[in-house]
Amino acid sequence: MTEQPTNIDTAARLDRNLALLNAGSVVTFDLVTPAGQRAKFRTTFIGYLPKQYVLIQIPDAGKLGKFSQHLIQGAAITVRGLIEGHEGAVVAFISTIKQTIQMPSRIMVLDFPRTVGLQHLRSSIRIDTQINAKVKIDKNYWQATIENLSVSGCQLSIVNGEKLVLSEKTGIEIVVEDTQGGNNIKLKGAVCNLKQQVDGVSFGVKFNAESNIQASQLLHNIVTSHD
Known about the structure:
By secondary structure, the chain is mainly beta. Helix content is 11%, strand content 48%.
């Protein structure tokens, strides 16, 4: 799927790699209750003080629901965030809550992590997926499945697509619903490696250069939603 995380465990390297997360970056955190219930929330990375603590925003109470009662001192959480860059990488670390603050803003103070995992999302790495999508070909939309994904392209299958007239380099647009609350993700590219099947059609897509950022965002969503 992705490269195995590289554990960063010296103080200097912890500091350097956490610094790759910009203040204001979107991160997600996982919380597991004592009863074993698991939840994932999207929030904002505020910053950190080396060897002391990390600060992230506490999501709105309406989004936390019943899980708000479990954001208490000593609770363990896993935090993941995307490092912006040419190919992108995801930083992940496990910590515990030191304190929660309500003023001047709702902030979660976390223990400074002992290790930081680093997962690179390289264009040569393809992640197996089963993502429902819509594909716009000419003026028509078709239901499709993204079977694998990288920063530079993907493999698509369309059931009942026998009547589709496709050729190499046909331009298409892929629309994926952003399940993490943002706008739909749109990827533009061209058909390659076309294969007709008995019950439909399967083909590769090479993304246009301007779609690489959107592809990185979709990869980020997949990685950060992984339990």
